[in-house]
Amino acid sequence: MGEKRAVILVSGGLDSTTVLAMARDSGYACYTLSFDYGQRNRAELAAAERVSASLGDVEHKVVTLNLDSIGGSALTDASIAVPEAATEGIPVTYVPARNTIFLSIALGWAEVLEARDIFIGVNAVDYSGYPDCRPEFIAAFEDMANLATRAGVEGSKTTLHTPLMQLGKGDIIRNGLKLGVDYALTVSCYQATPDGLACGKCDSCRLRRQGFLDIGVDDPTRYI
C-alpha cells in the first residue's frame, strides 16, 4: 500500500471539518465516515457530504445506526428538549456511548482499508462536558483498539489523532481558515432546520458563535 490512509469521523460540523482539513494537510488519503444514528439534526448529514467533497476525500461512507431506539439524549429523543441555556454537569445533549460506538466502527473500517490512523474532532477546552471527549477516554480506546484487532496483534499499531483536543474554538477556526475550510458549508446546531438553519441558542451554537467573535472573523452561519 503506497498511500498513507486515514479514517476521519466527519459530522458536518465545525470541529470535524477542521480535523479533516488537518489530516489532508498532513498528507493522508482521507476516508470520511459519518453516521445516520437517529439524530434530530438531519441537516448535518448533508453537510458532512458537502465538506468531505470540498476537502477532497477519497470516499465518504454513511453508516446507519438506530441510537434513537434507546433514546436517553435530547439529540435522539424528540420528547427531550434541547437546552437553550447553560447547564451544570453533563447535559442532556450527551448521547450515551456515542463516541465509543462511532470509533469502534471507524476502527473496523480502518482495518479493512489497512489504515493505521483515525482522526476525531473531540475537544477538552470548548466542549459541553461530554465524558467521551476527554483525553483519558481517547487513550483508553486506543489501548483497546490495539488489543482487539488483528492489525494490533500483528504489530500494526492504530493511532487515534485528536488535533483539536487542547484548542479553543477561536483557534480551531483560525487553523481551519488557514487550511481553506469554508465554514459556510458546515452545520453545528443541535436542532438545525432541515435546510441547515441554526437556532443560535443551543450550546453548540453559542460556542461556535463565540469562536468567530474571539478572532474577529465574520460568522458565516445561517441562523433562523
UniProtKB/TrEMBL annotation:
<dbReference type="InterPro" id="IPR018317">
    <property type="entry name" value="QueC"/>
</dbReference>
<keyword id="KW-0436">Ligase</keyword>
<keyword id="KW-0067">ATP-binding</keyword>
<keyword id="KW-0479">Metal-binding</keyword>
<dbReference type="InterPro" id="IPR014729">
    <property type="entry name" value="Rossmann-like_a/b/a_fold"/>
</dbReference>
<feature type="binding site">
    <location>
        <position position="205"/>
    </location>
    <ligand>
        <name>Zn(2+)</name>
    </ligand>
</feature>
<feature type="binding site">
    <location>
        <position position="189"/>
    </location>
    <ligand>
        <name>Zn(2+)</name>
    </ligand>
</feature>
<dbReference type="GO" id="GO:0008270">
    <property type="term" value="F:zinc ion binding"/>
</dbReference>
<keyword id="KW-0547">Nucleotide-binding</keyword>
<protein>
    <recommendedName>
        <fullName>7-cyano-7-deazaguanine synthase</fullName>
        <ecNumber>6.3.4.20</ecNumber>
    </recommendedName>
</protein>
<dbReference type="GO" id="GO:0005524">
    <property type="term" value="F:ATP binding"/>
</dbReference>
<feature type="binding site">
    <location>
        <position position="199"/>
    </location>
    <ligand>
        <name>Zn(2+)</name>
    </ligand>
</feature>
<dbReference type="GO" id="GO:0008616">
    <property type="term" value="P:tRNA queuosine(34) biosynthetic process"/>
</dbReference>
<keyword id="KW-0671">Queuosine biosynthesis</keyword>
<feature type="binding site">
    <location>
        <position position="202"/>
    </location>
    <ligand>
        <name>Zn(2+)</name>
    </ligand>
</feature>
<dbReference type="GO" id="GO:0016879">
    <property type="term" value="F:ligase activity, forming carbon-nitrogen bonds"/>
</dbReference>
<comment type="similarity">
    <text>Belongs to the QueC family.</text>
</comment>
<comment type="function">
    <text>Catalyzes the ATP-dependent conversion of 7-carboxy-7-deazaguanine (CDG) to 7-cyano-7-deazaguanine (preQ(0)).</text>
</comment>
<comment type="pathway">
    <text>Purine metabolism; 7-cyano-7-deazaguanine biosynthesis.</text>
</comment>
<feature type="binding site">
    <location>
        <begin position="10"/>
        <end position="20"/>
    </location>
    <ligand>
        <name>ATP</name>
    </ligand>
</feature>
<dbReference type="Pfam" id="PF06508">
    <property type="entry name" value="QueC"/>
</dbReference>
<keyword id="KW-0862">Zinc</keyword>
